[in-house]
Design a protein that fits this description.
Layout lengths: L1 E5 L5 E8 L2 E7 L2 E2 L7 E4 L4 E4 L4 E5 L4 H9 L6 E3 L5 H7 L1 H11 L4 E4 L12 E6 L12 H6 L3 E8 L7 H14 L3 E6 L4 H14 L4 H9 L3 H18 L16 H16 L4 H16 L4 H6 L3 H4 L6 H10 L4
Helix pairs in contact: 1-3, 6-7, 9-10, 9-13
């Protein structure tokens, strides 16, 4: 039995992180608790799988967009990820997911909708749908990529890269073909965490849905260098996605009132951060520069056009690259 308890205030979690290479500043959580279907859920923010209980308590945020907007106004500037959702019938009654998404958009934020069970009434560039892969053949009743695309939203898939499972060529081909057929605009690989607890849950998930492969996967999961294997798989994933016309970074949403040049330049810096590979210092600087742009509060394309950008930009070593990002966007 699942019990839904009304929370007095919205659950928002400021967090400097990224999903598929895209920076996020804060997560809005309409339904708190790993309860219900599917029994195993991949969280692209934590980069790990969670085992969900069939019964328990779920804290439900308010169905008031204004309350979510006020809560988000106290958080650092930048993109918001809303989710994951709850069962469709629960969302129809509670409305917490739709309220969180609407509140984030009204606050002027770019919004990623993670595994939504409802779509905003006013579809637009402020929203991008992210569907994370689940090992369960029953993925629940969330909004499909095809439905999101039919509603006019950018949408795509997030695949956890698990050596010995999701790296198989036939698996990748089927996954990417399904996304392309559904009209997805992107497919992003997410390196799954290789910590002990994460691997334990993965072994249980594989045993639950593919018992014949359980023993061989156990050996692969516990006795291989995940980091080394994942880099090669991600390279192959990106090449195969590109062959199908799929971008390998999620589309970056554009917040209502957000300067388009700022958004486009921040997106370009995020992509450069991913391309930095093992150079963690450069990647961190690029994400910091994207954060500075997101939090600037003004249209920086005009500053670039006036030739004054380097006077205000605090990352001197990246000034040329940041200016180029604005100019490539066509805004400067």
């Amino acid at each position: 039995m699942i019990e839904y308890d009304n929370a007095l205030t919205p659950s928002v979690k400021p967090r400097e992180s990224e999903i598929g290479g895209r920076r996020i500043a804060v997560q809005a959580i309409p339904y708190s608790g790993e309860i219900g279907s599917p029994p195993f859920r991949f969280d692209p923010v934590e980069r790990r799988f969670f085992e969900r209980r069939a019964a328990g308590r779920v804290a439900v945020g308010p169905a008031d967009p204004e309350a979510w907007g006020r809560a988000l106004a106290r958080c650092p500037g930048g993109p918001v990820v809303v989710g994951p959702g709850s069962a469709r019938e629960v969302e129809e009654i509670r409305g917490a997911y739709a309220a969180a998404a609407e509140g984030a958009a009204k606050a002027g934020r770019p919004v990623y909708l993670l595994d939504p069970t409802a779509l905003p009434a006013d579809a637009g560039r402020a929203f991008v749908v992210l569907r994370a892969w689940s090992p369960s053949p029953d993925r629940g009743d969330g909004v499909s990529i095809a439905a999101a695309r039919a509603a006019g939203l950018e949408a795509g898939g997030l695949l956890p890269i698990v050596p010995g499972w999701t790296d198989a060529p036939e698996f990748l081909a089927a996954y990417l073909d399904d996304l392309a057929a559904a009209g997805a605009t992107f497919a992003a690989p997410i390196p799954a965490s290789g910590d002990g607890e994460g691997r334990r849950i993965l072994v249980e998930a594989r045993a639950a849905f593919d018992p014949a492969s359980a023993d061989s996967f156990f050996e692969k999961a516990h006795h291989t260098d995940w980091a080394a294997g994942q880099d090669a798989i991600i390279g192959r994933f990106r090449a195969e996605a590109a062959r199908r016309g799929l971008a390998t970074f999620p589309t970056r949403p554009l917040g209502r009132g957000e300067p388009p040049g700022n958004s486009a330049a921040a997106a370009r810096l995020e992509e450069s951060a991913q391309d930095a590979g093992a150079d963690e210092h450069r990647a961190a600087l690029l994400y910091a520069a994207a954060r500075w742009i997101d939090e600037s509060g003004r249209d920086l394309a005009a500053v670039v056009s006036e030739g004054n950008f380097r006077k205000v930009f605090p990352f001197g070593s990246l000034a040329r690259e940041a200016e180029a990002a604005f100019r490539e966007s066509g805004a400067a």
